[in-house]
Amino acid sequence: AYFFTITLFISSLLSSCGGNVDRSKQPKPNILFIMTDDHAMQALSAYGHPISKLAPTPNIDRLAQEGTLFLENYCANSICGPSRATVLTGKHSHANGFVKNDGTKFNGHQPTIPNILQKNGYQTAVIGKWHLNTKPVGFNYYKILNDQGEYINPDFITKDTMTQEMGYVTDLITESTIDWLDNRDEDQPFFLMMQHKAPHRNWIPAEKYYHLFEDVEFPVPNNYFDNYDGRLAAAGQEMNIYRDAYEGHDLKMVTGVNSDTLLYDRWPQVFFGRMTEEERKRFLEAYRERNNDYYLTERTEEEKAVWKLQRYLQDYLACVRSVDDSVGEMYEYLEEKGLLDNTIVIYTSDQGFFLGEHGWFDKRWMYEESFRMPLIIRDPYIKEKGKSISELTQNIDFAPTILQMAGVEIPNEMQGESFLPLMSGDKKGVDWRKSLYYHYYEYPGFHSVKAHNGVKTDQYKLIHFYNDDVWELYDLQEDPDEMNNIYDDIAYEEVKYHLHNELERLIIQYQVSDKYLH
Ligand code: SGN
Ligand code: CA
Prior knowledge:
Shape: globular
Structural class: alpha/beta
Bound molecules: 2-deoxy-6-O-sulfo-2-(sulfoamino)-alpha-D-glucopyranose, calcium ion
Distance between the termini: 70 Å
């Protein structure tokens, strides 16, 4: 009978729209926003990429099984600070003032998720990577990494202090997050941003995972040895795994058999310099056999390049494993405290990343791997579980969506749109946007990616490297790896015409100032 009453009670909470819970009759939900740094969807098994099958992420996948998986979610500008500024403000980079990762100072006094939620009865906190060069505004509490942050024994900045904590960054961020939850005011809902450093460069795994993937051979992308034919900008980049990755700093290679000296370690202060002597020894021991093998086995240049890819992926994916553990711990915590039914959990990364496609690591490009952003939302008020969404969503939509979830008005100046109606089934794809605007500004800059903007539809992508006035066009159905620039292909005249118009329309809609278009 008890079960029956509860069932009746629950069904009375369901509104007419698709059996979802009527939010207006519920207490405001808690929101746990988990954002990692550079987590590619190729490394998140809910998306099914072959790489992730060898290094699955069961805890993050569980969010998708119990929630909504976004298949076509993109960022507006594939670089850290700008993506974070867009998430907070719901605006494209030019409109929120943070276009480059060049030390720009984020203006936290514009309408942002935390500012608005705080004014509407939320407790707000951010723990982990911040990287916006001004102190967090709109947060009751913050504990952030110093700039990029360090993997090992990192410094944390709070309102009054900067303190080094001993341990592995992903674990420390999880602990601090749980700590904050334990001490929060339980009478108020919370908006909590847990923002991991991992799996950002230089991909140092937790000690317990040094060996995790050492014997795993990950699939080599078929365009690993891309020659960039027909793509001028791509030919000029500096993000090749086998040419530009630092052999010490990034690939943990040493100077010879049994050597304890790293090859080029560009920033010792964030790597070996951060470890205690004991930690350094254990690290070197863990990598010794593999590093010796590099010198003891003869390899062609091509084989060496593949060896480097494997080393990169093994470390990157071991970092992802700790992130997945962290999500598991948060799950356990919410379950234990009875919070799962009134807490929305969002999992995303500040942008995508290359895992060897085109020969690359890093991001920045409007090409799919870095443009795409993983996004999974477990919203207990939405009835349908394991749903996926293929409409074009973007990080400009995060703020409006979160505000709508919290039942708060969305400021007009936000450029994104809430995708909550897509999740709840109240709005069908027919009413949704059919194209996305993208704009990357940071040139000259690290990794030498030329500035570009562009438009993407479900099938096509037009990119303008506007400093040199060079155009690229891709048919994503025919050429998902974006190897064939068909801009000059006469067969695509009409597509091109349509996309040029669409790009113009978006530039006007989002009010991109002329100074950014040359
Ligand atoms: C660091 C990295 C770069 C990376 C930028 C931006 N080098 O400079 O490879 O592109 O950050 O990354 S590192 O060896 O110092 O890590 S972002 O996540 O902040 O956008
Ligand atoms: Ca990043």
